[in-house]
Amino acid sequence: MKNNEQKPDFLFEKVNYKILLIGIGVIALGFILMSGGGSDDPTVFSEDVFSFRRIRLAPTVVLIGFGITIYSIFKKSK
Which residue has the higher pLDDT, 47 or 68? Predict the structure, then answer.
């Protein structure tokens, strides 16, 4: 009987998966920042749709999150 049990080979290392999860969390945060701004009454227009948070901040956070996930994929292992 041979005891040649090998560890399963993963595509990435543990650090890559941690960075990937952080990136996914940042993307989710960006979409949470984008949500809301609606009006309870459909006949009343709400200017909250065009706030700084929804127009500038949230898309920037989402793009940063995508950058983090791309970095986690291309990060070389040792």
Answer: 68
